Each structure stands twice: as C-alpha cells, then as structure tokens.
Amino acid sequence: MITSLSIKNYALIEKLAIDFSKGFSIITGETGAGKSIILGAMGLVLGRRADLTSLKNKEEKCVIEAYFDISKYNLKSFFEANDLDYEDETIIRREILPSGKSRAFINDSPVNLQELQDLSLFLIDIHSQQQTQELSNEGVQFKIIDAIANDQQEIANYQTLLKSYKEDKSNLNLLLKKQAESIKEQEYNTFLLNELVAAQLKSGEQEQLEADFEKLNNVETIKEAVDKSLALANEEQIGALSTLKEIKIALQKIASFAPEYASLSERITSLVIELDDISDELTNCSEKLINDPEQLDLISQKLQLIFNLQKKHQVTTVDELLAIQTNLENTLFELGNLESDIATLTQSIQDKTSQLDALALVIHEKRTKAVPVLSDKLISILATLGMPNVRFTIEIKAADNYYQNGKDEIQFLFSANKGTDFGLLKKVASGGEMSRIMLAVKAILAQYSKLPTLIFDEIDTGVSGEIAIRMGEIMKEMSQTMQIFAITHLPQIAAKGNAHFKVFKSTVGEDTQSELQLLNEEERVLEIAQMLSGAVVSDSALNHAKSLLN
User: Fold this and answer.
1) 461 φ, ψ to 5°?
2) Domains and CATH numbers, the chain
3) Is 70 helix (H, G, I), strand (E, B) or coil?
4) How many CB atoms within 10 Å of residue 319?
5) Where is the RecF/RecN/SMC N-terminal domain (predicted)?
6) What is the pLDDT of residues 155-195, one digit of tens each?
7) For burial by CB atoms within 10 Å, which of 108, 236, 418, 443 has the most?
C-alpha cells in the first residue's frame, strides 16, 4: 500500500506532502482543482513518461517521491531479479530536470522506466474512465476470466512453449527457403562437380603436363641436339671428353712440381668427371626420346580440358579448380544436411503443436468452468446496483489459431433489461451501466488478486442516489482486504470513506497552487454538505451530510 506521497515543483503544486492510511480513502474537490494533477504525479512514480510541461518552475527540478509498504506482497524475488535492494518500506522517486531529462530511483538505486513500470504492476491499479471503455477489449475480458479460472500457470507454460514453437516455425521457413534456392542450383552444381571429378585433377599436374607436351612436341629437335652433343663429347679422336682426358694426363705429370699445377690438375679432373656424367645423362635422354603421337595427343587433350575448366570457372590454376570442387561437394553435402534439419524441426513443431493443443484445452476448460462463476457474481452485485434484470452471456469458443494466451476467442454479451436482446458491451451498455459493471468486475477480482492499492477515478459517472450508496459500500467492502482510493463527486460515496482528502486551489500573490488536505470530522461534514447543496450550505444539507456519515 502507498503510505505517503511528496510532490515538489509539479504542475500547480509547489510543495506537497501527505500521508495515507489503509482502508478506504476519498479524494474530492471542484472540477479543475487539481485531482488529475495528483493522479498525474502518481503516474510518474509508476513509470509514465514525463516532459518539461510537468515543471511548475522551469528553472528547478521536479521531484515526486512515494513510500510503499510492501512487506506482505512477496516481492523479494522481483528485487533480486532486478538487482535492487529490498526494503519493506520501499521508496520510489522520480526527478524531472530543467533540461528535460528524467531519472527514476527505487530505494536510491537508479532504474529505467521499464523496471519502474514492471514494479508498478504489483503496487497500484489506477482505474480511470478510459479503463471502463477497455472493458470491451478482448484482452481485458480474458484477464477477468483468467483471474477467476486460476489458469495463470498454464498460460505461462503455454506462452513459453508458444515462443519456442514460433522460433521453430521461423527457422523452418528459413531452411525451406534455403532448400528451395539450393534445389534450383543443385542440378547445375552437380553437373559442375561431375565435370571436375571426371577431369581427375591433381595438384601440380598442369605444370608436368605442359613440360611433357613440350618434350613430345619437339622430340626430333631435342634428339638431334642430344645426339650431336654426345658425338661431340665422345668422338674417339677429337671428342671433348677425349681431349679433356689428354689434358688431364698432361697436367698430372707436372702436378707435383708446384701448387698451381696441382690446382689446375684437380680442376681438369673435375671437368672430366662432370662431362662424363653429362654424357651419361645425355645417353639416357636419347634412349628415352621416342616419337609418340598418341601420347602427345592425350596430353594435348588433357591440357585443353584444364584450360577450358579454368576459363569456365575464371581461375588460372589447377589448385583453384580443386578448391571449387571441394566447395561444390560441401554445398551438395549441406543440402543433404538441410533435409535432415528440416525433418528434425518439422518433428519438433509437431510435438510442440500437440503440447500447445493440450495446454490450450486445459486453459479452455478452466475458462469454461469460470464463466458461470463470473456471470453469477456479476449478476448478484449488479442487482444491488440497480440492475436487477441484467443478464450476461460469456461465450468462449476454441479457435484454430494460436493466440498469446491460448486458442480461445471471447465475447461478452450483455442485456440490461427483460425482453431486450443480448449485444456487445460497447454497443449496448450506457456510461452509467459500464461504470457499475466495471466496479462489479473490480470487486470480484479483489477476491482473486493480491493488488495492494486500487484507485477509482470517478467510477461513479452516470449514477446517483441509492446506487451511489451501494457503490460506496462495495468499495468499502473491498477495502477490507486492499487499500482503496475513490476520486468522486458524489457525497454518497464520499461518506463511506475511512479518510477524506480535499483537493483545492489557493492563490498566493500572483501564483495559483493546488493543495491536498486531510479533512477532520467537522471539515468533512462541511465538504459533504457542499457536495449536496453547493457553496451555500443549508442546515438540511448539514443534517443530510451527518446522516450519510453515520
């Protein structure tokens, strides 16, 4: 529950500090006195966005601080999850700086607005006239029926599963798209791969083939040169080898006479050995040289195949062709993996579909059982609020679609009088009827929810007299288990409160300010009398006010 509220430099409020008690509190005041300002300040504490128009004095910051007693509301886990210091008396502070920037704090720890909004869901529900119209919204209607059905755990499990189901569906669509694109390319990729595999390419092969081609293509020229070299080297009388050997013998005879002759002898000996070795290799080359047109043709064909493949794939080496071959093999392998992944995801989606359907059925059955409970309670409360012939038909139909809270669709059909047809709430219910229905809904939900504080902002629109008295009694009954505030213009409701606050404007010099005051017993009698008769209070109005209070 909220225990106190302080406001500084906000709208028409220069400075305000007020304490609140548990039970049923009333807030009254003339139209325009500043009741909406109080609600606006509370809205900022609960995480509503702010702007510079909130500042009374544009040169100073606005500070709004609210104290909450949360000792009985099991919120420690929320504080732990958000890394916040837990205190039984929790303080929420909002600051709006002249620069336009806004800051928020929970127990002096800075937080963002989302964290503040998340916490506010456990603290205060401000019911406005706009919320009354939201009663026609399907989402709100489901929240009402689900509170009575006590299916929150099933819905939470359903939502977790639904998120996973949607992720699987999204991933499956991506894989199917990728598969469709791959299938289009599969035939061509397979052709390219088969062409490369058939070529039986090897790293370094092109260079070897080109060398062999040059040999075979010039075999006669090569043989002629080799044979001529052999003849010049090995001619018995004038061959180079024979001449070198004679020089070698001559130098060996004088090698011992001087070091330089020995050196020359060693060098000529090396030349003889080298030329002899060259002669042997030339002999081997000559023996291997064969004019083989068929082999030349085969090598030419293989080189042409390699050149054609390089041109097709826009590369210049066999190694690059082999890399393309490997990539094509991987691509076709991935296509096989895609089929496996698609099969796995498809099975997962089928399994989750069955689980979602099972959960949705449990939710549907719980909601169906809650319908007569809600309908009977609404009819019972509304009968005391001057609607004795009201009837409800709450239709919950199972659909094929997976919605965020199940597979159901809901319709609240309403008839206020005997002999009238059922119709949708938003089409057939008047403003006064909607206000009473909403109060009845809140009274019912108070039995099932654990909301600490509920603020009714002029829920009495369109009612008066005995109906207003009964509305006040219902709110007072609700205040036995939760803190209730009612902003009202009706004296019948105002008289039911445990505490009564008045919002009024005052003028200080040239400045107009809004203030909030807790009324004592005499001031409260006078305020209710003024609500009954206006500014001029008659004795009968005072007596009526006392009667209402008693």
Assistant:
1) -55, 125
2) 1-123+452-519 (3.40.50.300), 178-337 (no CATH)
3) coil
4) 14
5) 2-507
6) 999 999 999 999 999 999 988 887 777 766 666 767 776 77
7) 443
